[in-house]
Amino acid sequence: SLQYNWTTAVVHFGVLSVGGKIVSSDASPPTYVHGKHALALANLLQPEIQVKILNGPNAKMEIEKAAARKLLWGSFMWLLCHENDDNDNVSTVHENKSNKLRALVQEVLPAIDALLHNDDNDEQPNKRINGTNNESPSSSSVEEALSYLKAYSLSMPLAIPNKQLAMDEVESRNGVFLSVSDQVPQPLHIELITKVAGLNVVNRCLPHSGEQHHHKEEEEEDAPLPPPVSADKVKAIDSKQTTGMMSCDEIGLIFHCRENIRAREYHNSLKDNNNDKSIVIIGAGIIGTSVALNIARRQQQRQQEEGGEGDTIKQITVLDRLPINNGDIGEATSCTWAWLNANSKSPLSYKLLNNLGMIAWRRDNVIRDLPSWCGSLVRYKKSDGDEEGGGDRDPRLCGGAYFAEGPLSMEQMRTIEPTAAFLTDDNSDYENKEVGVKAVENVYYFPDEGQVDPAKAVHKIRKEAEELGVRFLGKVDVPEILRDSKGYITGVMTKSMDGDESNVLKANDVVVAGGVGAAAKALGGLPMMNHPGTLAYARSLSSSSHRSNNSKDQQNVHELNRILVDTVTQSHVLCREDGMLVAGGGVLQVGGTSAVETPSTTDTVGTSDALRESLGKQLLKAASRLAPDALKHASFVSTTEGRRPIPLDGYPAVGYIEPGLYVVVTHSGMTLSPLLGNIVAGEIEKCVSCDILEKYRPTRFHT
Fold this sequence. Notes:
Strand content: 15-25%
Helix content: 25-40%
Structural class: alpha+beta
C-alpha cells in the first residue's frame, strides 16, 4: 500500500465501548505512522496517544513488522479469551494461558516470513521480519513478540475482544496466517478456531487450493447446511448469509461483502432457462459510463481466466436521451462543477466514501492523468462565539484523515493563490488592505483536492468501454421495463426522441444511472429533490490556452490556479486546464443535513437564452469577488443548466430495487464515479452486496 503514498498507521489503543474514551497507558507500544500525512495524524493523536513516525529506508519494513505483530494480537486474543466460554479479559489470558499463547506464537511466526516471501511486489523477497532465515523462529523473536503482546494487552487489561466481530473479520485476521498453512502447518491455530468458532469459520480461512478441514465427531454440529428459506423470507433478506471479500483490481481496493441471496437466485434462474445475459444501462453520464466500462472489464478478465468458458454477457448497452454521437455527456454530468473532494461531507462514513473516490481517480489507469490536483481554498462561515477558527465546523477537526491548513492569514492565502481575495462587500475597495484582511477570515487550504473536465473524462471512459464491446445509443428514452409472467426482467421498451418509433431491447439486468430520471415510476420511482443548477463559463483575455496539470510552481499571478469556494457568499469558481473559467452559485450539496432545497438557486431549465445569459453574468460577477484579478477581464461564453441528481435525503442511492433492477444515483457523481463504477460492476457480476454501501441502498425509501 505504501507505493500509493498512503498514510499508514498501526494503532495501539483501545475504545472498549461505543462512545467510550480511549484506553491506553505509557507502557503500551506506540502507534506507528508513516506516509504523506504522518505528521498531521500524529498531531491529531497526541498527547493522548504515544506516536512514533517512521521515516527513512527501513520505514516499510518497520511498519510491516508492527502490523504483523498487531495482527498476531488480533488473531490470538479473541480465541484465548473465548476458548472456554469464560469471556476472560486479556490480562487473565496472559496470567493463565501464557504457555498456550507461546505455543501459538512459535507456530505462526514462520507464516509471517512465508507471506513476505510470497509477496511478488516486495523489493527484498528474502528479508525476514523475525530476524532469521530458518523455518523455525528464533527464541529472541518469540520473546520479542510475546513481550509486545503482553505490553499491548496490559495497556487495556480489562479488554475482552468482540467474538462476533472477530468471526466476521476472520479472513482478514487469522485467515492471513492460514493462507500459507500449506507451507507453514498450524495445527494448534486451526484447533483453537474450530473449538471457539466452528469448522465453517476454519474453512473460510484455509487456502482455496487446499482441502477443507473436517472433524468427524463435530462436522454435523459445527457445519450444518443452511435451512431452506421461504420466498417471503428471501424478500426480507438483504445479503445476510455468506461473507467474503470482493476485489476491485483496477483501483487496488478490496471490500468486505456478503452474498446477495435474491440476486444469486435471480441469476441462477437465467442459467436454468438458458438465457443469454445482457445488460442495459440507462444514462451515459459519468456514472453510467463508468459502470459500463467496469462491467466490460470484469467480463474480459473472466474470459481470459476461464479461457472463453463460463458465464458470458452477450451485450452491454448504454442508453441516453441526449445525442451521444454529438459528444453529449449526460444532463447531470454536463452541468457538474467537477470538484473532486470530500470536503465537509458528513457523516464520517460518507466522507470516507468520497475519500475512496478520490483515491480511485488517482489509481485507475484510464483516468488517472485527467484530474488536476490543484488544491482548494474554502472560506467557512464562523460559528457563534468563535473568535479564532472554524468552531464546530473547523476542517482540522472534521475527521477522516483529511488534510487542511488554516485558518490562513492574508499573506499565506496569497502565497498559495495570488489572485484570491474573498471579498464580501460589493462597494469594498479591492486595494484597501484593511478590507482585504477582514475578508480572508476563516479560509482553509485543502491541498489534496482537485478538479476534472467532465467532458474529457466521460469521452475517455466511453472510448475505452467501446473498445471492450460496449454499445452506446443516444436520443433514446425508456418508458417501460419489460417483465415475464414470473416478474423477471426480459428487456426494456425504447422510444426514439426524434419520433414515435419504439423498439424492444432484450436485457436481464437494467442499471438506472440516469440522474433525476430515476424518479420515473417505470425506472424504480426513487424519491428525488428538485434541485436545479446553473454554471457560467467565461474566458479571461489574460489566460493561457493551456495550463500545466498539477503544477504548483508555475503560477501566473493573473490566472486562477486553485479552486475557490466561499460558503459565506455561496459562490465558487475554478479554472479548467484549457483556461475556461467555471463559476457557480448556491449551497454546495454535501449530503445529510446540508442537503436541503434552497431558494438561492434559480431554476433556469427551459428558460430563454437571454435569461440564462443574465444569470450567467450574475454568477461571474459574484465569483469575481473571490478572485478579482483572475476575472476582471473575463468574457462571458455560455451557461449550462440541469437538475442535480440528489436523492431525497441527500445521500447516494446504490443497489437493487428488485432482482435485475439496479439503481445508482448520487450528487457526488464526479468524485464517486470510479469507485462506484467498480463496486457496482462487482456486485452485479458476483451477486454480492458490499458492506461499504449498506447505508446507501435505495430500499431505505421503500420501508
